[in-house]
Write a structure and sequence with these properties.
This protein has 333 residues and is of the alpha/beta class. 39% of the residues lie in helices and 20% in strands. The chain has 2 domains: 120 residues, 3-Layer(aba) Sandwich (Rossmann fold); 156 residues, Dihydrodipicolinate Reductase, domain 2 (2-Layer Sandwich), CATH 3.30.360.10.
Length: 333
């Protein structure tokens, strides 16, 4: 079926299904009309994040900490080249329609209906173009990982934001685990002197190695170490990538990305007074709290320089790997 016909049919079916059945299938609390200024649009239904975010927000009780924000519209596309992503689009269309989400034919149509945006497209190659359209609207936007498929594309996202005078927020949910939150609030821990993190690190040939999934563990590393990394050295094997960074103050931080063994996230932080073990993935609620706070205030919760360094770190790893483990300095932009 051609994309235009498919989307037209999906929109017609979405409207009739919502009117005819979902009002009965879901409790009234799940079909509340969004408060003014709190309508969220999703770009990209090619990732599980889209369905998960819509579910959490649109089924939240009035007491939930999301201040009435709901996903009301979505544009499905989305990766066109990564089969594992675009094959999921039809299924996720049906799932988000079940939460009362309208399907739009293009991004411009979506922007007319919403107040803020979750850019969820799984394929980082599409982020510079899609983000630029949102930036022109001056609507606040959360851009899911990765910002691009390589550092050049990440720079393009920042350049577009600067051109249109817009801001954005981007982060992995692993930044907001209870252990990392506790670490930041516990003055008795003392200064972080080093850290080790790990996560799954599946590869996608169209993206730099750590961009596709290893970014989760790298985000954890920077969440506890902060910015200031100056150099990265790579160690690579078939089932593992190890990236060791040296910070300007002499501290070291290491990320281990795995493609075999147990599927888990975690690590350990080394402090002046004691150490702390980092917890595994705990869900999207912590991240969604920060997204809603950003939509409300416009204050980006992660320092811009820190997010930039995360991508510079991963690209420095790529270069070090290509040069058989030679240390590579981070590119500043």
């Amino acid at each position: 079926m051609q994309r235009r016909s498919f989307l037209k049919n999906a929109m017609v079916l979405g409207s009739s299904a919502f009117i005819g059945s979902h009002a009965q299938a879901w409790p009234d609390s799940h079909l509340r009309i969004s408060a003014p200024g709190k309508k969220i649009g999703i770009i990209g239904l090619d990732t599980s994040h889209s369905e998960a975010f819509a579910k959490v927000l649109n089924t939240a009780t009035a007491e939930a900490p999301y201040n009435g924000y709901r996903v009301t519209a979505a544009y499905p596309y989305g990766s066109k080249k990564i089969a594992g992503s675009y094959n999921r689009i039809p299924g996720y269309i049906e799932k988000v329609k079940g939460y009362g989400v309208a399907i739009c034919a293009d991004i411009d149509e979506l922007l007319k209906q919403v107040d803020c945006v979750l850019l969820e497209t799984n394929d980082g190659h599409l982020h510079p173009e899609q983000a630029a359209i949102v930036f022109q609207s001056r609507k606040r936007v959360f851009i899911d990982k990765p910002l691009g498929a390589n550092l050049k594309e990440v720079e393009q996202v920042y350049e577009a934001a600067a051109k249109y005078g817009s801001s954005f927020f981007s982060s992995s949910s692993l930044r907001y685990t209870s252990a990392i939150k506790k670490l930041k609030e516990d003055a008795a821990f003392g200064k972080v002197v080093g850290a080790f993190t790990f996560s799954p690190c599946t590869l996608e040939p169209t993206h730099e190695d750590l961009y596709w999934y290893g970014i989760h563990g790298v985000e954890m590393l920077f969440a506890v170490m902060g910015s200031g990394c100056k150099m990265v050295q790579a160690s690579h094997a078939t089932d593992v990538d190890v990236a060791t960074g040296i910070w300007e103050d002499g501290r070291t931080g290491t990320f281990r990305g795995t493609r075999s063994g147990i599927y888990a996230f975690g690590g350990e932080v080394f402090g002046e007074k004691r150490n702390m073990v980092l917890s595994d993935y705990e869900g999207y609620e912590g991240l969604l709290n920060e997204i809603v706070r950003y939509f409300e205030t416009g204050n980006v919760p992660v320092p811009v320089q820190e997010t930039k360094e995360i991508y510079a770190f991963m690209s420095a790893y790529q270069k070090s790997k290509q040069h058989r483990g030679k240390p590579v300095e981070l590119h500043r932009f």
